[in-house]
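Hi everyone, sorry if this is the wrong subforum. Our group has a chain we'd like a structural model of before ordering constructs, and none of us has done structure prediction before. Sequence below.
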Amino acid sequence: MSQILSKEIRNRITINGEGKLYMVSDFADLNNDALVTRVLSRLEKEQVLMRIAQGIYLYPSKNRFGVHKPSIDTIAKAIAEKDKARIIPSGLTALNILGLSTQVPMNAVYLTNATPRTITVGNRKIVFKNGVPRNFAYQSDLFSLVVSAMREIGENNIDDETILKIKEILSKEPNQDIIKQDFLIAPQWIRKKLNMV
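Answer:
Right subforum, don't worry. Here is the predicted structure as tokens:
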């Protein structure tokens, strides 16, 4: 029985292709968490999987230079997808993703509408913090990212050059109607700064 299940787990991982993350919960339908834990651990020892963090494994994509590790942002998004949660990069993480700051934060912080938690990945941490429902009202991920970044800079510290960069970033969103709708529900000071009307 356990051999059949381990073969099933290995097959699923291979069929899904490289670059995917796995947790025990992905195999909940097999009704044997203890065995799944052992199999994932064994696949790591056999170097089929890489352990990214406690209980999170990666089926890595490899090229001639070796293993391609996903970015912290990719890992965070994959975890959110598994949790069926929405996340928004927050603070310095948002600034870095938008290219408004070259500083890479030690802790990648995300607002989430799911359970808050911290996951250690190597020497960095992914921190999921509770976000208020208003943060998740935007339809465009890009617009929510911009709002997050502008909040981090602060109303009184945001300069014209940054506003121009932000407008340029927003202009690249293919669906401008969504941006316009999101703009209407943004905090008043952000609407004033972006002045998109």
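For your construct planning: Strands lie at 20-22, 50-53, 56-59, 61-63, 66-68, 87-89, 107-112, 117-121, 124-130. The chain has eight helices and nine strands.
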